[in-house]
């Protein structure tokens, strides 16, 4: 894989994953606010602090999808970068 091809793939994947992740974050926040009306986006990083979310019928499922999307984004980025030929370290 050439560096140019890798860069094009990274840009395409980044754009796609960012749209999907942003949409899923909004969905997770909307569901969380059904159980805890004043919860904020930062609070979702510690969702286990809110027992009401455990009782919500779909929150954990949708939160898991969000975590999967983020993991897939990172994995794809690592895979593409891992296929690039090694470059010599910069000379000092």
Radius of gyration: 18 Å
Beta-strand fraction estimate: under 5%
Shape label = elongated
Major sheet attributes: none
Tally of strands? 0
Query: What order do the SSEs take from the amino end to the carboxyl end, as H and E?
Result: HHH
Mean pLDDT across all amino acids: 90
Measure the end-to-end span.
Answer: 28 Å
Q: Flag low-confidence runs.
A: none
Number of helices: 3
Give a nutshell description of this structure.
By secondary structure, this protein is an all-alpha fold. It has helices at residues 3-35, 51-55, 59-82.
Report on this model:
- With 92 residues, the chain is an all-alpha fold.
- It has helices at 3-35, 51-55, 59-82.
- Helix 1 (3-35) runs antiparallel to helix 3 (59-82).
- The two termini are 28 Å apart.
- The mean pLDDT is 90.
